[in-house]
Amino acid sequence: MKIFTSAQIRELDRYTIEHEPIQSIDLMERAASTLARTIANTWDSSVKVVVFAGPGNNGGDALAVARLLGEQGYQVAVFLFNIRGRLSPDCLINKRRVQECKHIKKFVEVTQEFDPPQLEKGMLVIDGLFGSGLNKPLAGGFASLVKYINASPAEVVAIDMPSGLMSEDNTYNVSSNIIRASVTLTLQQPKLSFLFPENQQFIGRLRTLDIRLSQEGISKIDANYTVIEESDVRPLLKDRNPFAHKGQMGHALIMAGSYGMAGAAILATKACLRAGAGKVTVHTPRKNCQIMQVAVPEAVLQLDHEETIITEAVDTENFQALGIGPGIGQNEATAIPFIAQLRRATCPIVADADAINILASHRAWKQQLPKGIILTPHAKELDRLEGASVDSFERLTKAHQLAERLHGYVIVKGRYTAICMPDGHIRFNSTGNAGMATAGSGDVLTGIITALLARGYEPQHACIVGVYLHGLAGDLAARDLGEESLTASDIIDYLPRAFKRLKE
Length: 504
Ligand SMILES: NC(=O)C1=CN([C@@H]2O[C@H](COP(=O)(O)OP(=O)(O)OC[C@H]3O[C@@H](n4cnc5c(N)ncnc54)[C@H](O)[C@@H]3O)[C@@H](O)[C@H]2O)[C@@H](O)CC1
Ligand SMILES: [K+]
Fold this sequence. Notes:
Blueprint: E1 2-3, H1 6-19, H2 24-42, E2 48-53, H3 57-71, E3 75-81, H4 89-100, E4 106-110, E5 124-128, H5 140-151, E6 155-159, E7 183-187, H6 200-203, E8 205-209, H7 215-220, E9 225-227, H8 230-233, E10 251-255, H9 262-274, E11 279-284, H10 289-295, E12 300-303, E13 321-324, H11 332-344, E14 349-351, H12 354-361, E15 374-375, H13 379-386, H14 392-406, E16 409-412, E17 418-420, E18 426-428, H15 441-454, H16 459-481, H17 488-503
Parallel strand pairs: 2-3, 2-5, 3-4, 5-6, 6-7, 7-8, 9-18, 10-11, 10-13, 11-12, 13-14, 14-15, 15-16
Antiparallel strand pairs: 1-9, 16-17, 17-18
Helix pairs in contact: 2-3, 3-4, 9-15, 9-17, 12-13, 13-14, 15-16, 15-17, 16-17
The structure holds ligand NAX and potassium ion.
């Protein structure tokens, strides 16, 4: 699913109007009837409704919703804010329709002073002040109105977006001047800012309503942001040739673990095997020998000369992929061979966890990373690598600039894991759950992506399939076990089911 910017939403709007064709006022009516139907399915007509409408098309939607609910027997009070004496054409038409509607008993057009209505518990506020046309943070009277609504005990339904929230960049926004909705009914597709954790407090429960904007227009507009869906992943999966032998299924090298962190190596290796690699070799410190042999008998061990840390860079000629970093620590004796290893590797690489921390403390090394490398930081690791960010948008921007600079892939892990491609595209994962916020979950992802690379997936496909499978395995595990008790090992155990589901 594509995520459009506000400029692209306007473009799509115009495309739909021109090519369907449909009058813009009728498109607004279509959106409003879907909104009103959704509201009526959740709240019956005993609820008192207060509608706050702004001067643009978001306000137009809200006025149309007010009329439609009024016609269905809801008691609706409407406040239209027309401070500048200028309404969008469709907002103006809907203002007249509300004024002519005998079911609306209270309609107030606010041009100067505003005497706010009492908002009580059990009332429903419909927020149609601003949507995707907001061009700067709210201030003055609108900011006071937002604070008034937020302080009230009434439930708030936001139309398209919580008013005050920007579709993309909220870095310089003022959070107290943004509506905190209990439900957001967004039109056609979620906005970029909805994917960020710090904005969940404004959005509440999100529902995306299909208002049938032109499918042709949607496919023509090139979106920088997309959300990965199952239908995107299925066609990418490789078949296993019935005549295959293990030598053709990819030989992966995992460089992981230090003494006390053997678990990271075990998880990455197991995940790599479960994600379909034909053979997996693990390079790990000597002291991990026994535990690795017992925990993952399928893997081949390549022991470092050192007892407790990794101190060698090795030949990768016989491997089709290298996964490096989980649990390796940040000892300087590991860091030096680590960068040598990256330079020396002849196969695709996934670098995770301590690999990223080492890069963060050796800034100059970032320039030496091989093209096509896949880095998988979580938010904190990315902050260490690229400097702290004030919010998720800024962090995403840094990640995407890093991917462009490296000609590589930066996977920022989180609720909607973002894969930043070297060409500037960003793909968000839709699978996964809060249960996966648990130690070792990242090591599992490293193992999965390494396996896919070894199997011969293109790096961008390995990233997409990898994050999707990882999240899906977590979701299937959580369905059976619940989120609270989920462990990284459970994600590995459910990988077979995730594959099966995608191959069905
Ligand atoms: N393609 C779609 O998805 C459709 C969108 N529609 C609605 O149209 C909305 C977008 O409408 P508009 O583009 O008219 O934009 P908005 O209604 O979000 O706001 C635009 C108005 O707000 C003013 N404004 C912007 N920032 C302000 C600020 N900080 N303080 C005070 N005033 C400010 C602008 O000058 C303009 O008058 C969507 O959010 C949605 O609700 C629907 O009508 C149907 C189709
Ligand atoms: K709104």
